[in-house]
Design goal:
By secondary structure, this protein is of the alpha+beta class. The protein contains nine helices and 13 strands. It is globular, with a radius of gyration of 19 Å.
Length: 290
């Protein structure tokens, strides 16, 4: 079986001097298990996709900048009957944060969210009351890596509204209350492989920032999660990540209740180096699926 480990054309946007190259580590590990696998850039026009029996999404970290092309690429794989992990229909669903509505309708808790449609004009001052908060987080409905993400307070609401109304000419946005718990205790990430829990950690932003990604100075802290939080995280995976090789459940604890921020099913960093059994857990899940 020929396997493509899907990545992207790296232009240095998501690198860090202290960040391990997780793709290379995973590739070496899977090859040590005698799998025939290589890294492949998803939108490389030279690739003959019929040469591969299976494609595994790992780090297509520019997909949200090229979303139309990404959807076309998914359609190409589908037309050629090339299996993708995670499954194509789930990937398409997960690419747009409107999926949060589906999760909420299923009775699972999410961070309160309001979507603003492309072409709308808004005044962010109106949303502090609607979301019962004095701080907002605003980001595109199709996004990643904190692209065009704003933390909004009364002090910068007018200025950010002007920027946002320009950006709304191009795409939809999502508004959420800023969860102070992320600054105080951190954002949880639960990693699952093949629907089974592997490991968890808290991500914390550097002082004075709100972004937890390592490219912005965020730090990670491996944790053994409380059982009630793990059970809650498992529910999101059981209902919305069926047949998935990997899933990352991101959220925060507010008033002793876990609120989902994102269910990452396309290109999450998996923090494989933070747990001794993580690589093996990934491999065992992969073997079961293939």
């Amino acid at each position: 079986m020929n396997i493509a480990l899907i990545t992207y054309q790296d232009k240095g946007a998501y690198t860090s001097p202290t960040a391990e190259n997780e793709d290379d580590s995973l590739l070496r590990f899977l090859r040590s298990k005698n799998l025939k696998i290589e890294k492949v850039i998803w939108n490389d026009p030279q690739i003959i996709w019929e040469d591969y029996d299976l494609a595994i999404l790992k780090s297509p970290w520019d997909y949200f900048d090229l979303i139309t092309d990404f959807y076309k690429w998914l359609a190409t794989l589908e037309s050629k009957n090339i299996r993708l992990l995670n499954p194509i229909d789930i990937v398409k669903w997960n690419a747009d944060k409107h999926y949060l509505h589906d999760i909420e309708k299923a009775g699972l808790k999410i961070t309160k969210s309001i979507f603003i449609n492309k072409g709308q004009k808004i005044n962010l001052q109106e949303y502090f009351e609607k979301l019962t908060t004095d701080k907002l987080i605003v980001k595109p409905a199709v996004s990643g890596g904190s692209k065009n993400t704003f933390k909004v307070t009364a002090a910068n609401a007018e200025e950010t509204s002007i920027k946002l109304n320009d950006l709304l000419q191009e795409e939809d946005f999502i508004l959420q209350p800023f969860l102070t718990q992320i600054e105080e205790t951190g954002e949880w990430s639960f990693l699952f492989f093949g629907g089974e829990f592997s490991h968890a950690l808290l991500k914390k932003a550097k002082a004075g920032d709100f972004r937890v990604q390592h490219t912005f100075g965020g730090t990670i802290h491996p944790q053994q999660p409380p059982q009630h939080l793990l059970a809650t995280a498992q529910q999101y995976v059981d209902q919305f990540a069926k047949g998935c090789l990997y899933a990352r459940v991101d959220g925060a604890v507010v008033n002793n209740e876990f609120l989902l921020m994102e269910l990452e099913l396309i290109e999450p960093f998996l923090f494989l180096a933070t747990e001794e059994k993580a690589f093996e857990n990934y491999y065992e899940a992969l073997i079961k699926l293939i």
